[in-house]
Fold:
Amino acid sequence: MVEKFQDHQIRDAIKINYKYTMGGQSKFFIEVMKNKKLFGTKCTKCGKTWMPPRTSCSDCYEPTDWVELNQTGTINVSTIVWYTTSAFIKAVPYGIGFIKLDGAETALLQGIFSENLVPSKIKKGKRVRAVFNKEREGKMTDFFFVPEDEYESWISKPEFEGGV
Ligand SMILES: [Zn+2]
Structure:
């Protein structure tokens, strides 16, 4: 159990044992982990593209097919995180936001990192691109977004790389 807390850390010592299956969404995590690709799903009836992916369309309830999406997108809304859980304390401060990938019609909540994190860098309408950890585990934290103009700098760091 964690006894000491750092500044900006929410007291969050929680231990939960559970088994969790990715079920119909597992392809998303496998593609992130193995191939550095971002997959959403497209409704077989209305054609709406969902990101995060859904096995069925939430608008018309028809099944969806997997589609590879671009790794660039636009910030819909964002904020800078100053207080967080133990899982992310080393990253404080960092941005999070809803990002609409190019080709998707819904937005994905994901981390947005910047070398110069000020609100104007991650505001609504800013263009971002996905960066992947070199060591991936099939988790949402395997990738994050950076402002497009910082992309080359981020993927030149030893622990990160660009997508495919
Ligand atoms: Zn639909």
The two ends are 39 Å apart (CA to CA).
